[in-house]
Q: What sequence folds into this?
């Protein structure tokens, strides 16, 4: 497995994996610890999640998680909590998880930053929509770290077509997203290009995202 890590933007670290499989299987437990409706904030074994996925979301009951997701995102603070929980339980990390953890922690130290002050996004090299995926994950980072961006998205959501918002909510819940993160997910889909039928981008959101991105890139 090969992973490249860069400081992509202020406060945002980007991991690029060699394959979609390695991306998904390395990031799964951390990501689901962050936002899963069932496993958020809890310790769980990979097999537990695989069974849960197959029963609730897998196509024809299959574990197709590694074929579904092209990008991941979570705050560095969440990674710290997950590491602390694993250490408390004294359950060793899976080898791929340990590699991810060490890469991020080493980069944080190198840049003289704190884990709580950075945001992690990830994708894989041959992702056919890699730019779109990265933009989507950046939108999550903006929403998490910048109150002014979060406020502008909230205002746009209030003005948005209720039918589009309701359709987006229905689709996101069907995909397994937690209700707690719906506003964040909706703004990320509405703000960046994608091909999801019920989550097509909306011009006002896209402009808001691009305007804010220009501000952050100048920092």
A:
């Amino acid at each position: 497995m090969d992973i490249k890590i860069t400081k992509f933007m202020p406060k945002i670290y980007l991991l690029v994996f060699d394959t979609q499989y390695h991306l998904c299987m390395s990031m799964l437990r951390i990501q689901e610890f962050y936002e899963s409706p069932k496993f958020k904030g809890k310790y769980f074994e990979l097999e537990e999640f695989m069974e849960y996925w197959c029963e609730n979301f897998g196509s024809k009951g299959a574990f197709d998680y590694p074929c579904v997701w092209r990008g991941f995102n979570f705050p560095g603070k969440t990674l710290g909590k997950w590491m602390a929980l694993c250490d408390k339980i004294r359950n060793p990390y899976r080898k791929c998880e340990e590699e991810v953890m060490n890469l991020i922690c080493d980069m944080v130290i190198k840049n003289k930053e704190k884990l709580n002050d950075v945001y992690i996004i990830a994708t894989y090299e041959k992702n056919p929509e890699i730019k779109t995926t990265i933009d989507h994950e950046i939108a999550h980072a903006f929403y998490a770290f910048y109150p002014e961006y979060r406020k502008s998205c909230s205002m746009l959501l209030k003005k948005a077509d209720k039918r589009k918002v309701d359709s987006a909510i229905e689709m996101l819940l069907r995909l397994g997203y937690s209700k707690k993160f719906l506003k964040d997910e909706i703004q990320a889909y509405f703000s960046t290009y994608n091909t999801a039928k019920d989550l097509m981008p909306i011009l006002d959101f896209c402009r808001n995202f691009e305007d804010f991105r220009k501000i952050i890139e100048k920092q």
Observations:
- Residues 143 and 150 are 5 Å apart (CA to CA).
- The beta strands are 3-9, 12-17, 72-75, 119-124.
